[in-house]
User: What shape does this take?
Amino acid sequence: MDRSAPTAKLVTVPDPTTLPELPTWRRPTDPVGAFVDGPDTLVEGAPDGPLAGRTLAVKDVIDVAGRVTGAGNPVIAAQRPPAGRTAPVVQRLVDAGATVIGRTVTDELAYSVSGTNVHLGTPVNPAYPGHEPGGSSAGSAAAVAARLADLALGTDTGGSIRVPASYCRLCGWRPTHGLIPVDGLTPLSPSFDTVGLFTTGDDPELLGLAADVLAAGLPPAGEVRGIRIATDLVGLVAADDAADVVATAERLAAALGVPVDRRPVLDRDPADALAAFRTLQSAEAWRCHGSVVTTGALWPEGDPGDPRPTGPWRNALGLGPGIASRFEAAAKVTPDDEARAARQREAVRDDVLRASADGWLVAQPAAAGPPIALDTGPEDKLRSRLATLTINAPAGLARVPVVVVPTRPPGRPPLGLALVGAPGTDATLLATAAIPAARL
Assistant: This one.
């Protein structure tokens, strides 16, 4: 495929209050602001199968045939034709009986963990109104939390399933990297990108059932030998938040009849893992989208994966300020920066694999605390974002699976426990999340 940079003229940046009039992509009108397309029956599920009668929401970076995939941005949505085929991850769930009822709001190009979109608005967090829903799979999480959909597809690069699950009191699954096909996905950072699922916090069995469908059969669950509390990552959150994460982990260990161990998961400062993650994600995001964000012209042949553009930085997509600043910084990452980060990645991966070896599950927070208020100032918002990315970076660098379960009942600010396993232990994590002790 020709990967040469597009030569189309620069696209006029839209007013954020004005969206293109597209029949399958628009500003949400549903009660929680979750859907850019729907809620309505978009694709009828098979009449029988393990997911028959279940409803499914799909993040707006995953293709559904006949619908525009806008990746959260009106310039992209206005130029992209409707998808020619449905992504395999959607088709597998539909073939198993799930009915697609809509496609959901994402942060632009999935490059955020907040869930705030300057063009489409911020979906309501049904578990904690007035606070961020978490992103970039914000609409998918909001749709499930509001019980508008039984399950939802999201993506997770740096925490985009883990964080919304934590913020919206949901169960969430980030699979082992490479386990689930990413065909029909608008990428962000391919060496981190995964496609996973949300269900309500009181329905973890559905999460396991849908995950098995999505993986076309998960490897069998193994024995859990113990739960290892990552003291270095737990120590990054406030004392009351840490206490609830630890208490949930201990409750699960008691129900399983296995020991609890407390030790750091990393043999280095967690900030080093964050730095490696941000450098690698930035370099890959720029390779995927640098030409698009600086010219506004779509990918050659409609396929993401442009080379590094040679022109000056320009926000031709009208990206929101946080995401624009990330792309501007990404443009400055050098090959030497990326090489150093790649070496750090392998060191962090070794740490995580040691901590999760021989049937041990690692327990840590899924976010740096409860959702932050929508009116939080930019400096505090940045601190929260970086702390949350620090907590989630090791699992992403190690390409390992994670399942999130709530730690607090309604009436208290939401916070999730993340259970991290070795590569390929997805079924073990999902089975652990489904035992009665995982319920609030």
